[in-house]
Amino acid sequence: MKSNIKGLFIVHLCFYLLVDPLRELFLNGQINGGFLSFNLKQTFFALSGGGSFFLIALIVYLSFYRFSPSRKWLYLVLGCAVAFFIPVTLRYLLDQHVARILFGFVNYGSGVTLQYYYLDNFYFFIMYGILGAVFYFVTYSRFSEHRELELIKANQQMELSLLRSQINPHFLLNAMNTIYSLVFLKSDQALQAVDKLSEILKYTLYENKEKVTLKQELEHLENYLSLQKMRFAKDLNVTQEIDPNLLEMKIPQFLLLPLIENAFKHGELQDVDEPVTITCYQEKGWAVFKVRNKIKKQEKDEVGGIGLQNVQKRLELIYGSDQKLDIKDQNEHFSAIIRIRRND
């Protein structure tokens, strides 16, 4: 944490301008005006007192700043002692000696000793020492909160990176298996598959951002769907309904891919009457992304899995309470529905 002497000075000035006139009003029944008056003598004594009081607050603040984090309590006590003796001694010299030379007048009257100044100014030491200590603890508390938030954010970024790293190897393994099958079968589509994979890798490597537009994510999914169509060597029944007003919306990269992978793994892909549906639409302030598929009979107990858990964790880290992931498994159909609150 960096020291904030400028901030302390501003707080002290406001405090002094408020408290000192009130003190004079309470003790003397009137406000002299201090250094805001046109009386040179009063201005001198106001600056002498105000400067000494600021020095008290400053030394106490710096003592806490330097020694409190490392728990060097003895040094802290010594620093506070210095904060008492040096400013009060300085004020004594200014008020009782320099003022006599300049104005032929002293603040406390002739014959006042330094010991009396120490006793009389102990009240001010307590007041402005507390000001310096409170300012330190307030700034330190704000710094600690900011640092904690930064650590939480850094941990979230690390966790997001880890979650994303779980997606890519799983997807690449499926893609390589598809290309292997095409090469093994000596399919003319093998080169097309390699080209699609290269586009996917470009998206993975060069669009490596926390968020991308929905349009970019759908283009990536289109390449994935093309690979899957080559893999199955049959027409796949997949339909898309996309609200064009959502195309420029920013969403986490690879957010929809696990939903599509889950549908391809567990869904019935060639049923003419039951297509895999990908829909993106708006609903009462929410952007909704839905993938629905008919479940293969032999895999009714296996839907869901790591991919959807990954999506859930990423949504929680990025959007907090402004997201929902609903999983529905009923009537031989499986739906994964992502809702993200729109703040634009």
UniProtKB/TrEMBL annotation:
MF terms in GO: phosphorelay sensor kinase activity
Residue spans crossing the bilayer: 44-67, 73-94, 125-143
InterPro entries to which the protein is assigned, alphabetical: Bact_2-comp_sensor_kinase (IPR050640), HATPase_C_sf (IPR036890), Sig_transdc_His_kin_internal (IPR010559)
SUPFAM superfamilies reported for this sequence: ATPase domain of HSP90 chaperone/DNA topoisomerase II/histidine kinase
Signal peptide residue numbers: none
One matching Pfam family: His_kinase
One Gene Ontology CC term in the entry: membrane
Alphabetized UniProt keyword annotations: Membrane, Transmembrane, Transmembrane helix
Name assigned to this protein: Signal transduction histidine kinase internal region domain-containing protein
Native source organism of the sequence: Portibacter lacus
